[in-house]
Amino acid sequence: MAKGTKRRKGWIIASVVAGVLLLGGGAAALTSSAWAGESWWNASGTTEQESPAKTPAATEKPKPEVPKPVAVVSPEADAVEVNPISVPAITVQQGTLESAKLVPDSGGDPVPGELSAGGTVWTATGTLAFNTPYTLTYKLADANGDTSSETRKFTTVSTANEANAVMYPQSGSVVGTGQPLELSFSEPVLNKEAVEKAITVTSTSGQVGAFYWISDTKVRYRAEEFWVPQSTITVDMQLLGVDFGNGMIGNFNDTASFSTHNNRLAVVDNADKMMRVYIDGQLTRTFPVTLGTQDWPSTIGYHVIMDQHESIPFRAESIGLKPGDKAYYEPVTAHNASRISTGGAFIHEALPSAQSVLGVANVSHGCIGMSPEGAKYIYDNFDAGDVVQVLNTGYGPMFVWDGFGDWNLPWAEWISQPKQ
Predict the structure, then answer these.
(1) Which residue of 18, 34, 112, 216 is 20 to 30 Å from 2, comparing CA positions?
(2) Which residues pair with 96 in a beta bridge?
(3) What whole-number percentage of the chain has pLDDT above 70?
(4) Which H/E stretch holds residue 194?
(5) Are 278 and 289 in contact (CB under 8 A)?
(6) pLDDT in tens, 349-366
(7) pLDDT digits over 38-90, tens only?
(8) Mean per-residue pLDDT for 236-247?
(9) pLDDT at residue 243 above 80?
(10) How high is the pLDDT of residue 321?
(11) Model confidence at 324, in pLDDT bands (50, 70, 90)?
């Protein structure tokens, strides 16, 4: 440049900047940092704030898709006639069960239940009531924790389909050693084996017996021999929920028992028309009797006293006779009468007209006629379940269904009865 020429200020600044740019890597790094900072120098030498870089707004990470829980529930939705001993249950797949509640629609306490450790199975632990609508509400959770609620309804066995039973002798009774156990059912029993399995009979004597069905609504139980005197027979009936067949369901569980007193046996022999009374095996009394005629013979075999009456009306119509029939008789009242058959046979005080033939001839319609003393002795000293044995009438044994003719059936036949 020619001497004396003035350098312009702008060139000086440019040279300085250029010089800086030509420095080593350290200077270049500083210059780069200055430009990238929050502020930078402008052409006028003043600083200016740089706008911060804008970043996308933070968003939640979407949950992974998981399968929905599947619940297998029993009873089925809207089921009816559900057996009260059935166990409502919920089993969850692909998730867990957060809660479950089973309540009767009419109100009241929820049915208790139990949830498994893994939270996948809920089971009711309480017994349901008959003839009751129920609602089962439960909440499911998937693997993400999302929940959903569901509801099921069902109704238990209706009153019309309940079945029960009555035992004879009544619990707490003391009876004779010949008394079979009898159960009378309110509905026909088709599933006889199921009902038998639900009833357990034990005795303090250790005697083991068997059931014999008189009809679809009546079953008897006895041992091979008469019950041991002074023993107790216990009957455990677990019939709640047992299917009797034809949609009929047992509605109770119960335990009952009866006891036997000492051994009392009256043996009536048509050969000499005498009754011999044995108490605990010892002959105690002997009485003359009259038995049934040839047209109305007394049945032989074992008879069991069913009930007793100080007095009871006898009418010929009760045994199928009507006025004008040869054997018809006018209504009479019998005294000290002990029933020994459903068909109308009694031990009783003979009518005055028959007193003279006691021990000599048979004039009754199948009954055992006695003197006033003899009839009262039996009435006072014998009870229900005591045994009367009849011999030598020339007629067959009393049937098993005619009163308690159970002991006239051979044991082998008793235990081999078909259950159909």
Answers:
(1) 18
(2) 141
(3) 85
(4) helix 192-197
(5) no
(6) 999 999 999 999 999 989
(7) 333 333 334 444 445 555 555 667 778 889 999 999 999 999 999 999 999 99
(8) 97
(9) yes
(10) 78
(11) confident
Coil/strand/helix, residue 372 = helix
Cβ pair 70, 96 in contact under 8 A: no
Cα 398 to Cα 301: distance, rounded to the nearest angstrom: 6
Q: Say whether 254 sits in a helix, a strand or coil.
A: strand
Question: What's at 78, amino acid-wise?
Answer: D
pTM: 0.79
Name residues whose C-beta falls within 8 Å of residue 190's C-beta, 6 or more positions apart in sequence.
216, 244, 245, 246
- Strand, helix or coil at 104? strand
**Residue listed under structure tokens 């238990």:** 156
DSSP E strand boundaries for 326-377: 332-339, 346-349, 368-370
- Whole-Å CA distances, 52 to 9, 29, 37, 140: 34, 21, 10, 48
Provide the Cα torsion 296, 298, 303, 309; round to 10°: 60
Single-letter amino acid, residue 5:
T
Q: What does pLDDT average to over the chain?
A: 88
Largest separation between any pair of C-alpha atoms in the chain = 188
108 Cβ contact partners less than 8 Å away, ≥ 6 residues apart: none
Question: What are the angstrom distances between the C-alpha of 400 and each of 209, 226, 342?
Answer: 16, 15, 11
Question: Do 243 and 194 touch, CB atoms closer than 8 A?
Answer: yes
Angle of CA points 291, 398, 369, to nearest 5°:
20
CB 362 within 8 A of CB 350: no
Angstrom distance (rounded) from CA 75 to CA 250: 19
Residue-wise DSSP of 13-68 = HHHHHHHHHHS-HHHHHHHHHHHHSSEEE-TTS-EEEPPPPP-PPP-PPPPPP-PP
Q: Is 174 exposed, middle or buried (0-12, 13-18, 19+ CB in 10 A)?
A: middle
Residue 226: both structure tokens together? 């008469």
Task: Give the tens place of pLDDT for each residue, 3-50.
Answer: 444 444 443 333 333 333 333 443 333 333 333 333 333 333 344 444
Which residues, in sequence order, are bridge partners of residue 182?
168, 220
Instruction: Name which of 170, 173, 176, 168 is nearest 387 in CA terms.
Output: 176
The three-state secondary structure class of 289 is strand
What CA–CA distance (Å, rounded) separates 377 from 381? 6
